[in-house]
């Protein structure tokens, strides 16, 4: 249900704790004791693991309270800070520091109010903001506000205005840090730009044409498109929102009426003085799909269904064919169908990019409980890897290989040279660039904190035969790139290298 890649190439994966025993025992006889638990009060099984991508192994982790439908960000030191959840976990904060023996550390009451189906985003000062959640039309910060004010919960009327009565259909709002330091927040079909330092809405965007909801449980998805020309006086930022379900679809599913999902995407330049949504049509309808930013700046749409909504047994007709969205193509030629999977990935599935360029896909639990038979879509315990076309063997000779250290430290505005090798002579150095990707905390079809910056080259030169150096400038501020760990890729045309980890502070 929840996944985050960390800078040791491990993925932290976790699921709710209140469905009963898992298939993985906790080590050393450790058990979770919860007298309020309805299914099992003594649980000696793991509901979180650390998955080693490189070696295909895992290590059980211990969570004490329920993390169901929570949120999270990665701190500047690389620790995962996970916020909220359900029942006894709704106001808790859990911290996982990547190391060989580390486990979750739980802070009871770390949040000032309950956060279930909320969205988190990292801020330039390394704090995270936690926005919304069920019946929470407000936001707060963790760690708490640094100005010493006792109040850490700030009302956000926008979340009241975008919530349809009796539906709670603007959960997990889409949140992105804009290049001006304000937050783009979208709930259903409406969006604002919020100055969180003053609790002030500084811009209201037009409603998405059609007015249909895009957030949980209508559950479309969204990405901040690649940030480019980072040295320019005026920077552009664009948001892409795809899929969702027509208004009223969630209530219709309760009557066993499953409406077709939306087949549209909406794209907007949020930095324009007079921004307008540009509508596009996908090759098919999608709800509950994940949108994964690839190292070359394109977007993968994967998982989900074509009818119904998110929720227990409320999705139909799984979409097995991923779509590739080519960001820089002209409108009308941006979508390409990809090779299909054979595994339905419905409610509570997820997908994240890993360092070698693959996309790890897991989950699907559209039932109250773990149901493996006699249901339309059984609970799915497998992981699989989707390999984008740039990993095909026919492109292997065009794939750069970075020669720099596997982990490097950066400072803002620094001049950086990366050396890389090619299996062919580099005849078109103007096609080489470097991208810098912040891995996401992904749950419920939204990749929180996902951010890709394009570091256009100052110079590409020959070091020796088929070994080259590319000089780039690191982003100049924490507003463009909040402090923390990023994956750096050298990209030749549309073919990225494997990534290396870089920490910017």
List the helices and strands and how they pair.
Layout: E1 2-5, E2 10-14, E3 32-33, E4 42-43, E5 48-52, E6 57-61, E7 71-74, E8 80-83, E9 93-96, E10 105-107, E11 119-122, E12 128-131, E13 138-142, E14 153-155, H1 157-161, E15 174-177, E16 183-187, E17 190-195, E18 200-204, E19 221-224, E20 238-242, H2 249-253, E21 264-269, E22 278-281, E23 290-293, E24 299-302, E25 305-308, E26 315-318, E27 323-325, E28 335-337, E29 349-353, E30 359-363, E31 383-386, E32 401-402, E33 407-410, E34 415-421, E35 432-438, E36 441-443, E37 446-448, E38 451-455, E39 459-464, E40 467-473, E41 484-492, E42 495-496, E43 500-504
Notes on the protein architecture:
- The protein has 505 residues and is an all-beta fold.
- The protein is built from 2 helices and 43 strands.
- It starts with a strand and ends with a strand.
- The mean pLDDT is 94.
- Keywords: Oxidoreductase, Secreted, Signal.
- This is Aldehyde oxidase GLOX.
- Pfam families: Glyoxal_oxid_N, GO-like_E_set.
- InterPro entries: Gal_Oxase/kelch_b-propeller, Gal_Oxidase_central_sf, Glyoxal_oxidase_N, GO-like_E_set, Ig-like_fold, Ig_E-set.
């Amino acid at each position: 249900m929840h996944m985050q890649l960390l800078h040791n190439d491990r993925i932290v994966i976790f699921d709710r704790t209140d469905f009963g025993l898992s298939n993985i025992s906790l080590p050393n006889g450790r058990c979770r004791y919860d007298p309020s638990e309805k299914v099992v009060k003594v649980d000696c099984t793991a509901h979180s693991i650390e998955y080693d991508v490189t070696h295909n192994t895992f290590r059980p982790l211990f969570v004490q309270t329920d993390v169901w439908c929570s949120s999270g960000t990665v701190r500047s030191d690389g620790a995962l800070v996970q916020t909220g959840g359900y029942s006894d976990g709704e106001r808790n904060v859990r911290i996982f520091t990547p190391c060989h023996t580390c486990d979750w550390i739980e802070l009871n009451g770390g949040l000032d109010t309950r956060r279930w189906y909320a969205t988190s985003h990292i801020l330039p000062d390394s704090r995270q903001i936690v926005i919304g959640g069920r019946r929470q039309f407000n936001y707060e910060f963790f760690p708490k506000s640094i100005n010493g004010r006792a109040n850490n919960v700030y009302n956000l009327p926008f979340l009241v205005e975008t919530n349809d009565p009796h539906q709670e259909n603007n959960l997990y709002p889409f949140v992105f840090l804009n290049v001006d330091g304000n937050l783009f927040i979208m709930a259903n079909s409406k969006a604002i730009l919020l100055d969180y330092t003053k609790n002030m809405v500084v811009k209201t965007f037009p409603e998405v044409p059609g007015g249909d909801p895009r957030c949980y449980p209508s559950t479309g998805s969204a990405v901040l498109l690649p940030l480019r020309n980072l040295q320019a006086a005026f920077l552009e930022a664009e948001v892409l929102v795809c899929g969702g379900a027509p208004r009223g679809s969630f209530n219709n599913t309760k009557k066993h009426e499953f409406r077709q999902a939306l087949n549209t995407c909406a794209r907007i330049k949020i930095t324009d003085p007079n921004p307008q949504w540009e509508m596009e049509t996908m090759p098919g309808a999608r709800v509950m799909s994940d949108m994964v930013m690839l190292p070359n700046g394109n977007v993968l749409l994967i998982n989900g269904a074509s009818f119904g909504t998110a929720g227990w047994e409320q999705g139909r007709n799984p979409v097995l064919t991923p779509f590739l969205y080519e960001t820089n193509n002209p409108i009308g030629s941006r979508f390409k169908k990809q090779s299909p999977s054979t595994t339905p990935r419905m409610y509570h599935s997820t997908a994240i990019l890993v360092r070698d360029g693959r996309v790890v896909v897991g989950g699907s639990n559209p039932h109250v409980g773990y149901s493996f038979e006699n249901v339309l879509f059984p609970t799915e315990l497998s992981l699989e890897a989707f390999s984008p076309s740039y990993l095909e063997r026919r492109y292997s000779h065009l794939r750069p290989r970075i020669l720099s250290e596997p982990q490097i430290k950066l400072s803002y505005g620094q001049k950086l040279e990366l050396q890389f090798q090619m299996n062919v002579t580099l005849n078109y150095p103007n096609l080489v660039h470097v991208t810098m990707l912040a891995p996401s905390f992904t749950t419920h079809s939204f990749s929180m904190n996902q951010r890709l910056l394009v570091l256009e080259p100052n110079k590409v030169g020959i070091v020796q035969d088929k070994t080259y150096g590319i000089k780039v400038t690191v982003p100049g501020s924490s507003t463009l790139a909040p402090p923390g760990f990023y994956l750096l890729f050298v990209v030749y045309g549309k073919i990225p290298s494997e990534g290396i980890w870089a920490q910017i502070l």
